[in-house]
Design goal:
The protein is mostly helical and about 210 residues long. The chain is about 45% helix and about 5% strand. The strands form two sheets. It has a two-stranded antiparallel sheet with strand order 1-2. It has a two-stranded antiparallel sheet with strand order 3-4.
Length: about 210
Amino acid sequence: MNCTACTAPLDHAAQLCPACTGGLDVRLAELPGLYLLLADQLRPGAGRSDGPVALVREAPLPVREDVLDMRAAGGMVTTLESWREAMQEARGWGQPACTGSIERRIMAAARGLQLNLDWIAAEFEAAGDLAREIRALTGQVNALLDPAPRTLSVGTCAADLGQGDICDAPLRVPAGTTTVRCRRCGTNYPPHTWMTLATGAWAPAGAAA
Ligand SMILES: [Zn+2]
Ligand SMILES: [Zn+2]
């Protein structure tokens, strides 16, 4: 008998090994919070106090459709609700109610699965698919929340911190924004300076004459 999610051998008849059961438990507990965090990603830059507020007001940044899809019907809520429904059906129970805001539905579906985790790990025949799908879903959400892979590198900070001490911290353009701000010294670089930064042709202030 092997775990239906990771194929590790099991010492007694079950669907999931302890590691996959624990991982599923943690992910189900995390997902409602991750859903809330995704709201901050809808308009990158819009909620930042150091962002170009006037610019945002005049020309709203486009909504990130990948984040929108994950938050809408058909996204996270549908994955969780279909699994809860499948689990209830397998137990011979009726269909769960899916009412209220998407936020509440996500909480209810994740909680419903968590409350039945012992049965899922021991007997639910689709437990392996459930565990793998929830792991993939959590990975997708975390990727949406982490802007690092989506940023563009534009070189290093050219700010002179005094006595020719150039900051030199790596600069990145966060997804969806038009402001590059050095995380080390706070210097702002508007878009027209990016090419100069990227080519390393920046003349330190005072050095050009
Ligand atoms: Zn496993
Ligand atoms: Zn800097």
